[in-house]
Every structure is written in C-alpha cells, then in structure tokens.
Amino acid sequence: MLYNKVLFTTFWISLISTIAVGQTITSKIVDKKTNQPIPYATIQVSKNEGVITNEEGRFSLNLGDNFSKTDSIYISSMGYEKVGISIQNVTDSIIYIEPKAIELKGVFISNKNLTVDEIMENVENNLSKNYDFKLSHKRLFFRESEFNTVKKLKVDFKKSTIKELNKKFIDSVTSIIPKKSEYYTEVLCDFYNSSEKAKLHIIKAAELYDKNNMGSMDAISKKMETIFKDNVKPDSYLKIKSGIFGTKVQVDSILENDKEASAVKNEIDEQKKKEDKSNFLNNQKSGLKNILSSLFFNKDVLSNFIHKSGRYNFELVDYTYIHDNSVYIIEFSPKWRGDFKGTLYVNTQDFAILRADYENVKPLKNFKLLGIMYQDNLYRNTIIFTKGQNNIYDLKYLEMHRGNIFGFDRPLKVIEKNKHVKGKRKQNELSLDLEAFMSNKNKVEIVVFDSKPITETDYKNSTENKSIQPEYLSAYNPDFWKGYNIIEPNTAIKEFTAVPETE
C-alpha cells in the first residue's frame, strides 16, 4: 500500500470525482442493465496498483503524482466486460459496466468434457500447486466489525442481606448495561506468514466505538468493589451456586487488602501495562493467522467441502469469465453431514478456485443443557484469488461473517461464609434469578494489495512494532486514511457516531 510508487487510496471522502494531478477518483460501479451495484470489482491503473469495490460497489482511488490525465483506470469484475476509462473522462459518481456475453468455444470443452466430480477431483489434486503454503509477505488492510445485541436481560431479585445490594441497585445495573454495541477495528499492515508462524508490522490502525459503554461498565465495577469491601470480611469465602452447581472463592484473594498482596498486585499491574502495549498487535496477528488458516484449501477446517467432498453434491451450472479466465460455475449443497452450500468458480485450465461464495445451512455448534444454551449459527464467506508470482494464487479479498447466540436462564446465589466468627458461618447472601440472551455478529474484510514469496532470511529480518496502538475515533473521520490504499467503508461505518461523553 504505501510503497514509493504505489497509488494512494483515500478511505473517507464524498462521492464526487475531481480532475487534477494527484486527484481522488471516488465512484460507484453499477450494472448497466439491472442498475444494481457491483461489489468486489477490481479497479486498477497498473498491474500491481489498485483497489476493490466494497459490498455497496463503492471505491475511492487517490492518484499520486506518477499518473496523468492521459492514463486510464481499468475496471473488471466476474461476468462483466473489462472497461478502460481515461482518468480525464472519469467525471461521474457512477460508472456503468455491461455483462460479458459467454461464448461456448473450445476453451470450455478443452478438458475432454469432464464431469463435475472429475473437475472437483482435479481441484483437490492441484491445491498444493495452485495455492500458497510457504512463507510470504503480504501488504494488506484488515477491518473487523463487531455487533453485540442483548436480546433479553431479566434479573429477578430474590434476597439480599447487604443493604446496598437491593432491588433498586440491581435494576439500575441492568439498565446501564448497553443493549447494542458496535466496535470497528481497521489495520493497515505488513503480514509475514506461513502455515507455522507469523509476524505483523502495523503501519496505521484505528478503533471506532462508543467509550460511554466502557465507562458505564467501569462505573458498575467500581461501585460493586466498594460495596464488596465495605460488607464482606477478608477472611471469608464465597459460595457461588447456580442450581446444583457450586464453587468456592476465597475473599482475601479477591480483596488483596494486606500490604504484601497489594505490592504484588501493583507489580503485576505495571507489568500488565507494558504487556498491553503489545496486546493489540498480538490480537490482530492472531486474528489474521486464524482467518487465513481457515480457508478451504487448508486441511481440518470447518469449510471442508474440498477435502471432504463426499459429504456434498456438486452441479456444473454454467460458465463465465473472471479477469479473462474462463471458469466453471459449480454449485454445491450438503449430501450427508455437510454443513455448507455455495458456489465455486473454477479455472477451466488449471482447476484453481478463483472465487468461492458459501454459507452454513445449519448451526455448526448447538448446545443446550440445564438452562444454558450456545449456538454457532453464522458462517458466510466470499473469497477471491488472483494469480501472483510463480503462478501461485494469492488471496485478493475476503469477506467473512461469523455469528453466535448465547443465553442462560438459571438461579444464582452468592453466599458469604466465615469459619473464624462465632455462631453461624453464613454472613451474607445475594439471591437472583437470571435470564439473558445475547447475540454476537462479526464481519471481517481483508484486502491484499501485494503478496510475494520470501525466504527464511527475509522472515528473520522482518520486524514487529509491538508498542504501536490504534487511534481512537468516536465517529467516522473522512481524513484518517487519506493517502492510503484501503477498501471504502460501508454506510454503517460512515454513519457511526458515539454518544457525546457526559461530565
């Protein structure tokens, strides 16, 4: 992305094209016949420089000084005619492209009229040749959008021997807990990766969320801590029961009132502050590593329709073109024990999957027992590949949706007991009935702008910047990514604004 001769793409900008050296072209790609936006179209001005349209068909391209009005941008998308437009002629905020007519020439029958099962067998046999399993260096942009919703939260107050822990207080805590929250992370980085190891060098990063949600929860925690210290003896233990299950927690291990424990705690807190500086990098590195390891050509993955193809039915339904490559369009659905359905676009010549769109047809995990339930209910992917160096296919774009539901409906008792006091060991008790159901949806976008193989020496010489921290944004900022090559944000991100902080 930020190479010496690379285009600069502006992320946050209005949808108006301008004409000038170093101009920004911002537009929307639309199907001329249906008037529908075209997502994931490639916009290029040279072989290795360009962007991709987002899910709404929008893109922004910031041209550097290396390009003039006489240069052209080239627009290509699966099933459409490739279009070249002179930069000086890109004056509209909408660009229309037409579907490409499919001509069933010998290119589609050159593989001896293979059956769909034979095509899929060739796909699997050519995985190691077509995809990159070795060390590589990728310049990429990584955006993660997380949406949490509390669908139901009911706390039925039963009993409390602590005056402050009354029904009014419990109700106030329930009312403060945010029912909906959004959290966006954006990272521009260099990712050094293989199947065994990874390094990450972050160039720039941002976090977009509402700090008020975090402040509300911090206030609850501080209030609970004060109540706890004022009413519970350090040498007590807590008996926590939910139905027939129970556990003990020593109170003094929580309070840590004595000087020695406080000193240890302070030392741990200082160490944690140092470690927190690298947590962001480690979390992003781990996330990228897990996502890339989950792609369908790897073994032992949830998306197992290639390595466990016997669980699926495949049907050859049509043909099309992707970047001048003729491809089979193959649809698949579960036969037995299969979890996914989708569409594969397979190169007719080398049997590489150039694009895969698929989603789960049933929950991947479904647990329900004793008032506790968990369901892994969403797994939807769009993955696009392009042929890179050494005729190996590299990831160009990935959009992944994951989601789950968690809930419980159980009684809860917290009982303070103390064996060092006279009389009954039981000191205090809090009794509640809890019913809560929450959903989490996570969307990941990865755009790879450049990918190349590297040696072990290159990997050893690469560096990580563990101290880098993301910049906090309380609202969409049209200037934050100005001059960088990334993917245009969707409308939800552009319209996000945190509630102003209160005094």
Can you describe what's shown?
The protein is of the alpha+beta class and 503 residues long. The protein has helices spanning 116-125, 127-130, 167-176, 211-231, 251-255, 259-293, 456-461, 491-495; strands spanning 24-31, 42-46, 49-52, 58-62, 72-76, 83-86, 94-97, 136-160, 180-193, 198-209, 237-242, 245-250, 312-322, 325-334, 340-347, 353-360, 365-369, 372-387, 393-417, 426-453, 471-473. The strands form three sheets. Strands 8, 9, 10, 11, 12, 13, 14, 15, 16, 17, 18, 19, 20 and 21 form a 14-stranded mixed sheet that branches. The longest helix has 35 residues, at 259-293. The protein is elongated, with a radius of gyration of 28 Å. The chain starts with 23 loop residues before the first strand and ends in an 8-residue tail after the last helix. Residues 1-21 and 257-261 have low confidence and may be disordered.
